[in-house]
Amino acid sequence: MLPDSRDLHSFRSTDWTTQYQNVLESTLLWTKAVIPGMIDRKFGRIVHVVSDSARIGVPKMSIYETMKAAVSSFSRSLAQELARYNITCNCVSIGVQEIDEVKGSSTEAVFKLDKTLKLAPLRRYSEPEELGVMMACLASELGAYVTGQTISVSGGLVMT
């Protein structure tokens, strides 16, 4: 699902609520559901998906970016809270990704994506497998000593 991209002043409170439910509340609920079993096993890996747009600021994306930034903050707090149970919590931040919804959407959306792509040093879209490899690493024993991090898979669009 594409984020709602409009100027802030054109949002109604119901639009804000929809963004909250789709992005933040859904993450809070699934995360809350998996934690008890992880605590019982004294092992767990939580990997949230966020967006580089929340780290760099993109016009007309303020509501979506606010929700994704909240997911990152939530993840860092959980990393502190759950470490004693051998549970790690991280975020994979997605940069420039070509998705079917964008390809079939307005010319403006495609133009914005192409413009953003030119800012990434690798100058190409990420492949789903590249995101999956990072998520799999964080979810495995290989990610045992990584927690509270937001890792950008963006072709260099965001560098920290």
Written account of the structure:
The chain has helices at residues 13-41, 53-56, 62-82, 100-103, 107-117, 128-139; strands at 44-51, 87-94, 150-153. By secondary structure, it is an alpha/beta fold. The chain has one domain (9-153): NAD(P)-binding Rossmann-like Domain (Rossmann fold). It has a three-stranded parallel β-sheet, sandwiched between helices. α1 (13-41) runs parallel beside α3 (62-82). The longest helix has 29 residues, at 13-41. It starts with 12 loop residues before the first helix and ends in a 7-residue tail after the last strand.
Feature tags:
160 residues; alpha/beta; Rossmann fold; 3-stranded parallel β-sheet; 6 helices; flat
Topology (SSEs and partners):
Layout lengths: L12 H29 L2 E8 L1 H4 L5 H21 L4 E8 L5 H4 L3 H11 L10 H12 L10 E4 L7
Parallel strand pairs: 1-2, 2-3
CATH fold label:
Rossmann fold
Fraction of helical residues: 40-55%
- Strands of the widest sheet, in order across it, are 1-2-3
Radius of gyration: 17 Å
CATH superfamily: NAD(P)-binding Rossmann-like Domain
What's the short story on this structure?
51% of the residues lie in helices and 12% in strands. The protein is built from six helices and three strands, in the order αβααβαααβ. The chain has a three-stranded parallel sheet with strand order 1-2-3, with helices on both faces.
